[in-house]
C-alpha cells in the first residue's frame, strides 16, 4: 500500500508556472448558452481539468496548451471546486482559463452536507450555502444560492447542488435534485447552460432497480447535460483505475442510454476510467494534476508518511509507473520517449518536477482522447488501445521488474465489457 504517499503535498512543493516551461498567452471570447450546447453535442470529447488546492497558477497555461495541441479533436474545460475559491476573490481562477470552453464551479456540496458517507476529509467553509442546515438544503432558495455562487466566480455551465445520494430512498433523492435543477434553470440567462449534478453511491449503478429509477428520471427531465460522480470503493493505490466490473457495467449502461437519448454526460474525477467510458457514449471526463482529481473515492488514511516517489504516466500501458521504471523502459524499448512539452522541458533541465509529472499526465491523456475522437470508430479504437496496452505491459514486464503498484490490474476487466 502506498496510501501514505501524499499526492497533494507532492504537487504543492515546486509546481508553479516557472517550472512548467509553458508560456502564458492567449484569450478567448465568452461562450454563450447556444455555443455550449453545440459543443456538448459536437461529438468531440471533453476533458475537464480540475483546479488543484495549491499552486493553481500553473493550470490555465496547461489548459491553453492542451486546447491548442489537440484542437478540433478534444475540447477543454476547467473545474474550480468551491471549497478552493473564496467569495471575496471570485475572479481568481475560471476567468483566467482562456483555453477552457466549459467553465465549471463545482459546489462540492457532499463535502459539507449529508452524513459524510463519502468519507472525505473535512474542508474549509468558504460560502454561506456550505453552512446551511439539513432542512435548508432541501429548499429551492438554497439551490438558487448554490447556483449564484457559481455565477459569481465565472462559471458558464451551472450545476444543480448535487447533494450526496446514497440510494437509501432513491426516488425521493433524485426527485429533490430534479426539483432544485429546475429552480436553478429558471434563474439562468442565455449566457449559461444548466446541468443536472449527481453525486451517487455506487448502488445507483450496480442495482437494476435504482439504475432504472435514475435513467427514467434523467430522460424525463431532459437536462442540457448530466454531471455525474459515483463514489468508488477504495482502490489498491492512488494510481489505480477502476476495475470493479459491476460498477463499470452500470456506467456502461448509463453511458449508452444517455448517448441514445442525446443527453450529454460528463464524468468528473474519473481520469483514465472516464477516457474508457467515452467508448460507450460518455461526452467527457474530469482529471487533474493530482490523484485527488482522478478518482472519487474515500480518502485513504495516511500511513507512516513515506515520501512520495516521482511517477510517470506510461500511455502505452494505460497506467502510472515509477519515474525510475520509465527511465529503464526508455532505455530498453524503442519509441517510448515522450515528446510532450513538459517532458522536453524536463530533459533540458534534467529534473522531473511535480509540474512535469502533472503536465505530462494531462498531455498524454489528451493524446489518448484525441486518438479516439472520431465518434464512428471510437469504440473499436478504444478496444484496440486497451488490447495493445495489455500486450505492451506483458512485453515491459518480461524485460523490466515493476513494483506491484506499477502493474495495471484493470485492462482485462476493461476488455471484457466490449
Ligand atoms: Zn510527456
How would you characterize the overall build of this protein?
The longest helix is centred in the C-terminal third of the chain and has 22 residues, at 378-399. Helix 7 packs parallel to helix 8 (245-260). This protein has two domains: 7-293, TIM Barrel (Alpha-Beta Barrel), CATH 3.20.20; 311-416, no CATH class. The chain starts with 6 loop residues before the first helix and ends with a helix. The strands form two sheets. Strands 1, 2, 3, 4, 5, 6, 7, 8 and 9 form a nine-stranded parallel beta sheet that branches. It has a two-stranded antiparallel sheet with strand order 10-11. It is built from 14 helices and eleven strands. Residues 15-21 have low confidence and may be disordered. With 418 residues, it is of the alpha/beta class. The structure holds zinc ion. Residues 338, 340, 342-343, 360, 363 line the site of zinc ion. Zinc ion is lined by residues 338, 340, 342-343, 360, 363.
In short:
The protein is α/β, with parallel strands linked by helices. The chain has 14 helices and 11 strands. α9 links the parallel β8 and β9 (284-288).
How do the helices and strands line up, and which of them pair or pack?
Layout: H1 7-14, H2 33-40, E1 46-50, H3 59-69, E2 75-81, E3 102-106, H4 140-152, E4 157-159, E5 164-165, H5 170-187, E6 193-200, H6 203-206, H7 208-221, E7 226-230, H8 245-260, E8 265-267, H9 271-278, E9 284-288, E10 311-314, E11 319-322, H10 323-332, H11 341-349, H12 354-371, H13 378-399, H14 411-416
Helix pairs in contact: 4-5, 5-7, 7-8, 11-12
Bound molecules: zinc ion.
